[in-house]
Specification:
This protein has no helices and five strands. It has strands at about 10-15, 25, 35, 45-50, 55-64. A hairpin with a 5-residue loop joins strand 4 (about 45-50) and strand 5 (about 55-64).
Length: about 60
């Protein structure tokens, strides 16, 4: 996960039912984070990245 628009402060991952997923996040730099999706089931997920001011970006990804 990376953003050149703002510094990522928090990440939330939810499934299609809106259930929050417990995903390990490693902060690589202020603009880049890495998610460990190894223990997640296959499917479509939404990710919400938020900065310290409360601005957020939402995207989706597919875990195969």
């Amino acid at each position: 996960v990376s953003s050149n628009q703002f510094e990522v402060n928090t990440l939330e991952v939810t499934n299609l039912l809106g259930q929050q997923q417990n995903v390990k996040v490693e902060k690589l730099t202020t603009e880049n984070c890495q998610l460990n999706t190894e223990n997640m089931s296959s499917g479509i997920y939404f990710i919400k990245a938020t900065d310290t001011l409360g601005n957020s970006l939402i995207g989706k990804f597919v875990k195969e």
